[in-house]
Amino acid sequence: QKEVEQDPGPLSVPEGAIVSLNCTYSNSAFQYFMWYRQYSRKGPELLMYTYSSGNKEDGRFTAQVDKSSKYISLFIRDSQPSDSATYLCAMTAGGAGSYQLTFGKGTKLSVIP
Amino acid sequence: GAVVSQHPSWVICKSGTSVKIECRSLDFQATTMFWYRQFPKQSLMLMATSNEGSKATYEQGVEKDKFLINHASLTLSTLTVTSAHPEDSSFYICSASPLRRDTQYFGPGTRLTVL
């Protein structure tokens, strides 16, 4: 079993839809969870950063972490064509000397006008 | 804030030559920088972890003599691909981790094409 599982998609939604992106993980030591957005031929851009369980909202984006289920989600409200990109989840156990991130494979999202 | 730059953004070179890629954290200090490579339609593959003032730690299967990493300051790390071959053609991305933060900020990437 891979440490982080993420459905690669592709996922196509109409403009204005609510998008749900998910990752599951197996390492219970993970405490820091991130979502990155990567446009084609660009470096990943940090969207959301959360610590431990709970919800975090930033504009149209909401990140959820359920450590008991080892499941994290990213919701995008009122999706726009500019949201079309690959979304990568990433996580780390944290702490000194543990800065390495473990990534999901990424989900490719297309928002159709 | 938290901007990371890379230079060059793309490079084409002949087989057998060496290429140096720079990674800079522009508005924060980074004790740790990371180098990744990414093949088309695949996720990021960590190549090495670089700490300022010390030798880089390479992932299994990454040749340290081929991919030379220097992290000379808290804002600059370089990756030199020595004696490049066509199979080294890829998208190389660096990231930097701010002090006491368990996250990484990525550069825009460098596309290397070896002819």
Any overview of this molecule?
The complex is a heterodimer of chains A (113) and B (115). Chain A has 113 residues and is mainly beta. Chain A is built from no helices and 11 strands. Chain A has strands spanning 4-6, 11-14, 19-25, 32-38, 45-51, 54-58, 61-66, 71-76, 85-92, 102-103, 107-112. Chain A is globular, with a radius of gyration of 14 Å. The termini of chain A are far apart. The relative contact order of chain A is 0.34. Chain B is mostly beta strands and 115 residues long. Chain B has no helices and 11 strands. Chain B has strands at residues 4-7, 10-13, 19-25, 30-38, 45-51, 57-58, 67-73, 76-81, 90-98, 105-106, 110-114. Chain B starts with a strand and ends with a strand. The model of chain B has no long low-confidence stretch (mean pLDDT 91).
The assembly state of the depicted protein chains is heterodimer
Q: pLDDT under 50 segments of chain B (min length 5)?
A: none
Q: Please identify the structural class of chain B as seen in this structure.
A: mainly beta
Please provide the count of β strands of chain B: 11
Strand content of chain A: over 45%
Tally of helical segments of chain A: 0
Task: Specify the biggest β-sheet of chain A.
Answer: 6 strands, mixed
Question: Which characteristics define this entry?
Answer:
heterodimer; A: 113 residues; mainly beta; 6-stranded mixed β-sheet; 5-stranded antiparallel β-sheet; globular; B: 115 residues; 7-stranded mixed β-sheet; 4-stranded antiparallel β-sheet; 0% helix; 54% strand
